[in-house]
Each structure stands twice: as structure tokens, then as C-alpha cells.
Amino acid sequence: MSVLNPSAQTADILDGAQEVAGGDPNASGTAREVLGESGEALNYTLTVSGADFGAFIGDGTPLTPDTSDDVIGLHIHNGIRGENGPIALGIIDLDLVGPEFNDQDADDVTFSVNPDGSVTIRGVWEETDPASIPVSQFASEIQNAAPGEDIGLYWNVHTNAFPGGAIRGQFQGADGPIIGTADPEVLDGTDGDDILDGLGGNDTLNGLEGDDILIGGGGSDINNGGPGNDTADFNNIGAPVTAVLGQGVASYVPASGVTVVELLNSIENLTGSSNPDQLFGDGNANFLDGGDGNDFLAGGGGADVLFGNDGDDTLSGGGGNDVTNGGDGIDTADFTDIGFDVTADLTQGTATYVNSAGGTVVDSLVNIENLTGSANNDNLTGDEGNNLLAGAAGNDTIFGGDGDDILRGDEIGDGTAVLFTVENLQPEGGLFFTPLWLGLQDGSFDVLTIGESARTGLERIAEDGVVAPISAEFVSEQLAVGGIDSTVFGNAGVPGPIDPGETAQLILDVDNPEVARFFTWATMVIPSNDAFLAVPDDPQADPIFDAEGNFIGPVVIERFGSDVLDAGTEVNNELAAAFLNQSALDEGTPENGVVAAHPGFNGSEGNPDATPVNILGGTTAAGTVVDPVIGDFTVDGGDVPLLRINIDLLSNNGGADVLDGGIGSDRLEGGGGNDTLAGGLDNDTIYGGEGDDVLRGDLNLRDAQVNIDGGDDILFGGAGNDRIGGKSGNDELFGDEGDDQLFGDNGDDILYGGLGNDTLQGDDFSGGGGSDTFVLVVGEGTDTIVDFEVGIDLIGLADGLTFGQLTLESNEISFGDQTLALLNDVNTNTLSESSFVSV
Fold first, then answer.
1. Is the separation of the CB atoms in 744 and 763 below 8 Å?
2. Is the overall model pTM greater than 0.70, yes or no?
């Protein structure tokens, strides 16, 4: 969390001795506040030891068995040292019902538990918060305070043992921001907590000791955090930012044709802009703040804190015990990169899974409205709000709870889930590929042009595998046309190289397939210094959707040795190439400055005694050899298979899901696989999708549910041989393709068999009743109507079919030589025109 253009900061120490009546000698804390230039926003970071905030974290389980140190309140008060004063900002309070965030600052408070057991609380006191006293009333005092000078505000932490206050900390002035100029320069911090603002120019910011905030200000800056917990802040950047801590790079496009690349060294935290940013952490504990805009935040490994802030954000914690706080907007917790069964419950505010080491990982979910599961067998539960719960791959169990929910068995959001499978076709000892950058675009984003200079983003991929610049270019160019579905391969962080023989997968949610129709991608070839594989010199070469947004795959893309390109940015000197732990045999040819076919390498020989080398997060084994023959991708006329990309819909690989809408008017989508879908109470719409599904309009029970007020539901079986029961209410049932069984059950139902030889039963003989309509369509097979009651039920005639066109004989209803229906225990001679109705 940050404020725009910091103008002053304060630093505080909390202890029991500052409490007027005496406090807890075993608790302590430190705090830091940063005031924005406008004086209308105060960022705070408070770390407390010896006080248990467990009631406000995750599922509310205390952190320690001792209840005396349980926190019951946290406030900022207005008052001078040695005197008690009124609450200026209430942050949390424990009421008689249970823990809650105080309404005065409920939208942006995050809690994280540190390895030493202390708890860090972050938030922003904003002028728009319904605080008891507006923050702007203290702006002048904060801005004019000398370092160490008291300010008329103090922290107060209240516990069970000390309800009046366990520890207190008076706000005190601290050193102000170190601000540069519009020219290139070097700014050095101190051994304290500094704010360095480079303004314009290509600056070098050195935070040195302390927890520093580095604000580049718009140039190609070098951000050196140094020791401490440091933040790179892009709040004042007027363009979408892509920042990848694992690669130490951030990039954005402030103007057409201008790509800014900043370096991030010893940076632990990121603050985004007010635009749609993509922020990726690394293997450490990161704090990622998206700022305004619809952001994607991915923590990677480590116990991360992800704060979406304003906008509709997607947050992917990664592999640690993460805090996922969406902030304002409709936010999604995304677990597609988790390789284990996930149980996520919005009513409890937690998501758990067991990792490969057998440890239980617990993520905290705050201000989260939507969930996306993993590729495994997940259990997702919504809350009383309107949730979108998507299981992704695997056999998932999804329960909507209260609210008007959308449940999707085999998708990852509200769009179309596309599965990308990338295979390195090289044998052991062959070439590596850096993580793919990939995107779906409208046909105008041109990655490369043969014979012309490489764009900045492509140059950085080809030289060192860095993906942030081309991602920033892509978002900038595609944002206006809506084709902005892009990511680095790996979703929640950049993985290591794709090794020879390795297969990796990624799922993208495509919100606008009628626009984002064309696939684009690039990857660096290792070993090399500027060799790469990419989409052809044609942005429309690889469509995966048609103009109406229909998937036209599966699509298979293969690349061979003759497809390797040279970015033209460096001399082909294999001695300086990214050869992992190889030693090159010879030098290559000089560059000509433009993208062209790569001339190939002479190969290299391994160093059996070499120490393993870490390349972009992946470690190569000592003695790995790029054979002179295998490494030369020009042999056999370049007909050497290197890479294969398979593109398919995730629903074509769907699992057997169980979806239960609960209370509310819900929409359920089974997707692929043999699913069970129950709408629950109220008026639901249910789509079985592919597979042999079971659809139930109301509760997930086999009986007719006569005494249940289940609502008027609409059920579509989709492809496959489905079993569809409307249950209570006046329902519409559509069998669609396949030999389906339709049961209207209780209520006045309409049954459409659809394609295939279907069985239609209007009422359940265990007590269901009503006037049902059985719809017949020419050319869709022969339906069996089980329980037609003459004078009560009706035969519906669709698509202009009339009574005069029918032949009624025995128990058959025919049109020409097509038998449309068979009526069990009913002689059709007893039917009259009044038994039929046009639908």
C-alpha cells in the first residue's frame, strides 16, 4: 500500500510504558507512516510482538493458547504523550459477536504473521474513510515535524488483559523523502528507513540499510534496495506496469514506441500504478500492492501478502502461507498454479492444501468474492455474496452458498479457459528454453519483422529471457482493442528453464475470444546470447478463435531448428553466451542488427567438475552437456524438432465435478466430464456441458422434492447421455444432444428432449404433479414419454410443426416416416388437437 508522492514520514516505537495506566511489559511494536503530498492519505505499517491478532487473521484461530494477550482492538488516537485522547481512526474491534474490521478502515487492512511470530498490519488512512477525525487535520503537523518530534497521534493496541491499552506508541517525525531532479543522478539513502524519489531521468537509487521505498519516477532506473525489506513503488507511473522480482526487472510503456526498463536489485516488495498492472514476486516473502486498476498479482514462493487495492483484481499467492486481500472491487483468489488439492472457503476466509513435503499450507482470504481452483480435485465454497467459483481442471466439489452465484466446473473465470501445453522436444543434453511469454491478441500485435530491428521487448527475451518488457508492450498496445489476455508462462511467477524432454502447462482465461483471437509467443533458446523461437512474422498466423469467438482447435504448433531466429542485437560469440555451465568450442559470426534466421552454433562441451548454475530460477546439474551435434540445430537442414505447443479448451479435459448452487438464483456450468449439478433453492440456470451429467433443479437429492420451494429452473443437458430432473417448481428441461432422461417432477414443466432418443417423464409418481408439456422437434430422434396424462399434459410442437402434419397410431406420434414420440400406456387415438400446443 502506498500514497502518491510521499511528502513526510513518521516512525514510532510501541511499548507498555507509554500507557497512562501502565501496559503489558511483554509486548512491543514499531510503526512507520508515510503521508501523501495532498495530505489526504497516510500509509501505515505496524509490527507488533507479544499480542495475539489471530482472531482477525484467516479463520480466526488464536496464534497462542494464552487468551490474555488476545487483541480486542487497534486504533489511532488523537492525543499528546502522557494523556489519553479520543479515537481518530478505528481499525479493528472485537465485538460481542466476533472479530470484525472496524468500518472506519475496513477496505484496505492486511495482516501477516512473520517467521518470528510477530504480526504486521498494513493499511491506508484515507480522507474518504469514515474516521472519527479526518486525516487531513493532522497533515500540517506531520509535514512540519522535525525528526524525533512528537505528533499528536498515537497507536493503541488493546488486549483482554489490558482492555484500556496494552502498548502505545506516539507518532514522531522522521527524515523526509530524498528527492532527485529531472536529470540522471545517483541517490543514496541512509542506514534508516528512507524514501528515495528519482523524479525524471535514468537514476540509480541506493536504499542502503533500512526498509526503503524507491520511486524511480519515470526513467530507466536502477533500484538497489540493499539490506532490509525494500519496496519499488510505481504509484506515479501513468501506464500499466509489469514487474517480475524473480527476474529483477520492471517495465512499462509511457508513450507509443517507448519502452522503459527498470532493474530491481534486492527488492522485496512492489507497489503498482493506477493502471492494470502485472506484479510477480519471487521465492521470498513479498508484499505486492496492485494500486488502482484491474491487476494481476502473483506471489510465487514464500509467505506473501497480496493486496489488490481498488479494481477487480486476480491474486495468486503461490506456494506459501499467503495473505490474499482483494481490497475494493470484485476480486479473485486464483489457485491454478498450485499443484495440490485446494480447499477454499469464503465463509471461513481460508484456503488450505497439503504440499509435497506433507505440510499444510493455509492462505488467508480477505475481501475475496471469487475463487478459481487448481488443476486437481478442489473443494470450493462461496459465501453470502454473489460469487464466481470456477474449479478449473480436476474432479471438483463446488458449493455456492447464499447469493446469486456462478459455478463453473472446468473454467477459471468468467471467460473461456484455454489450456496451453508446451513440450521441449530435445533429448537429454539438448537445448533449453526460457519460460514462454504468450498472449492472445486481435491480430495487430507484431512480435517481429524479419529484416528489421527487434523491438525492445523481444530483444530482452532473446538476450536474457526477461519477459516484463514485451508483456508491458503487449498490454499497452492491446488495452484499447480489448485483446489483453497475456502472461508469462507459469502464471504465478516465472519458472526455471523448460528442460529437454520437459512438459509444462498453463491455463489462460480468455474474456473476449471474438477479439483476442490470435496466439502470439516467444522464448529464448539456451545456450545462446540472442537466439529465440517465436510466432511467425505475421501476427495473424496462429488463430485459435474465429470471428464469432468460437474455438477452432485443438491447435498444434511445432518449431524446428530452421525456425530459430537471431535478434541481431549481439555478436554471436558463444564464449559470452548463456551456456549454463558449458564451455564454448569456438566463436560465431557477427551480427547485422536485424532479426534474421540464426546461423547456428558450433556446439559446446560440458565441464564435468562445474558447480551447478542457477539460470532464471532453475538449476542445471553439474556436467550437463550440450552435445556438439545436439546443440547444432542446423543439422539435417534444420529439420531438428525443438518445441511443440498444444492448445485446447480446458473443458475438453474436464473432470467429474459436483456443483451445488445453494440459496440464490445461480448459474451452474459443468463443462467437460460426467458432472453432477444441483441448483439449490431459487430460480437457477444449469448447463451440463460435455459428458453424461446429472442435473437437478433444486437439492442434490433423487426424490421429487415436492415440499421444497426450489424455484423455476432452466436445465440444459448439453452433449452426452444426461439425467435431468427439474424437481419442484415450474421448470424447463432441455436434453440437447445424446439419449437423455428428463424428469419434470413436481410443478408445471416443459421438457425438450433434443437430439437423440430421449425419455421424458413429466411427474414423479412418488408425489410430483402438474401440467407438463413434452416438446417434439422433427429430426431430433424418437422420444419416449413415460407419464402423459390426457386432459392434463400437453404435447408441444416446435419449429412450425402443426397437428395436421402428424400421424397418430397406436402409441406413436409420427411425421412422415419419422417417429417423433412413443407414449407409454397411452393410445394416441385418445388425443385430440387440444392435446397439442405450438411452442
1. yes
2. yes
